[in-house]
């Protein structure tokens, strides 16, 4: 059992056998003290078998029915031992050293939550932060005019620089565990 765990990585799975091995492998290429907690929402494929086949110390929580993403995240956080939490989708590949960089950033800043930049398979920035919808932007999207609302997806920002966002994707969220405990 690992001691002084810096980061608990919580991954909720459901029929994720195609991606989970690559995700776990990418995590293992990061040089920091971490734990991986998989919460499986009653997968019907070989997700759990693939995880157990890998030579690693992954904690697995299995649900007897699909309880949804939020329930899965909460179940993983309850057993997490790390000072920080990374909520991660099972189809995500981490870049080498990103865990150390995220951990340093949250520990040396006033940020409460960090949503790392997400890249697609072509290495292009994937939209993962949004402003809260307004009546006007919602109507624009309903009538297929969302390209006129570039501000909603922060396209008016330099996406290669940090900025404060109103809402972020659940694909990758990094925060200090104390923040989660204070919110409940």
Quick summary:
The protein has 184 residues and is of the alpha/beta class. The protein is 28% helix and 21% strand.
How are the SSEs ordered, and which strands pair?
Elements: E1 7-13, H1 20-28, E2 34-40, H2 47-53, E3 58-62, H3 69-79, E4 84-88, H4 98-107, E5 113-114, E6 118-119, E7 125-126, E8 129-130, H5 135-142, E9 167-168, E10 172-176, H6 177-183
Describe the structure.
The chain has 184 residues and is an alpha/beta fold. Helix content is 28%, strand content 21%. It is built from six helices and ten strands. Strand 1, helix 1 (20-28) and strand 2 (34-40) form a beta-alpha-beta unit. The protein is globular. It starts with 6 loop residues before the first strand and ends with a helix.
Strand proportion: 15-25%
Continuous helix count: 6
* Helix coverage percent: 25-40%
- Terminus-to-terminus distance: 27 Å
DSSP, total strands: 10
**Low confidence ranges:** none
Provide the structure class.
Answer: alpha/beta
- The coarse silhouette is globular
Rounded average pLDDT: 86
Following the backbone from N to C, one meets helices and strands in this order, namely EHEHEHEHEEEEHEEH
Strand order of the largest sheet: 3-2-1-4-10-5
Describe the sheet with the most strands: 6 strands, mixed
Rg value: 17 Å
